[in-house]
Amino acid sequence: MVVKKEKYKALVVEETGPGVFERKIRDRVIGDLPPGEVLIRVKYSSLNYKDALSASGNKAVTKNYPHTPGIDAAGIIEKSETDKFRAGDQAIVHGYDLGMNTSGGFGQYIRVPASWVVELPEGIELKESMIYGTAGFTAAMSVAKLVESVRPEDGEILVTGATGGVGCVAVAILSKLGYTVVAGSGKSNAKDFLQKLGAKEVIGREELKQDLHRPLAKARWAGVVDTVGGELLAAAIKATKPHGVVTCCGNVASPDLPLNVYPFILRGVTLVGIDAQNCRMAVRKQIWKKLATDWKISALDKLYKEVSLHELSFEIDQMLKALHLGRILVDLGSLPK
Question: Which of the following CATH numbers is that of domain 7-120+303-331: 3.30.70.100, 3.90.180.10, 3.30.565.10, 3.40.50.2300?
Answer without folding.
Answer: 3.90.180.10
